[in-house]
Amino acid sequence: MQWQVSQDKSKASDFVSTTTTQLSSKRQGMVVDGKTWSCRDILAQFITLRDKHPNSLLIWSGDWPNYDSNSTKYYVILSGESFDSTDDAWNWCHSNNYGFVDCYPVNLN
């Protein structure tokens, strides 16, 4: 996973000045809906989402200022799509059938 994060970091830096959408944030050992997530599970989710959205990126929240207020760090999956506004990002989430907690606009600054 660190390799993927390293590969995606330069592409993710584009989203310091523009908006994309966050599709997931998980960390090893996190329990969601009764499932304890492993690094393998997180990577598998990333691959599944990248198959659906080829521009998807995997980042580490600790590398980006917008996540500084959260002391717990996560692997975050971004759609990698660029939007002119948060409304456009919300519309993308809706048109791709994601719920409010599954997809939302982010700017990495």
Explain briefly what this protein structure is:
The longest helix is centred in the middle third of the chain and has 14 residues, at 39-52. This protein has 109 residues and is an alpha+beta fold. It is built from 3 helices and 6 strands, in the order αβββαββαβ.
What does this structure look like?
This protein is α+β, with helices and mostly antiparallel strands. It has one domain (2-7, 15-106). The protein is built from 3 helices and 6 strands. The strands form 2 sheets. A 4-stranded antiparallel sheet has the order 4-5-1-6. Strands 2-3 form a two-stranded antiparallel ribbon. Strand 2 and strand 3 form a beta hairpin. The chain is globular, with a radius of gyration of 13 Å. The mean pLDDT is 96.
In this structure, how is the largest beta sheet organized?
4 strands, antiparallel
How many independent structural domains?
Answer: 1
Distance, first to last CA: 23 Å
Contiguous helical run count:
3
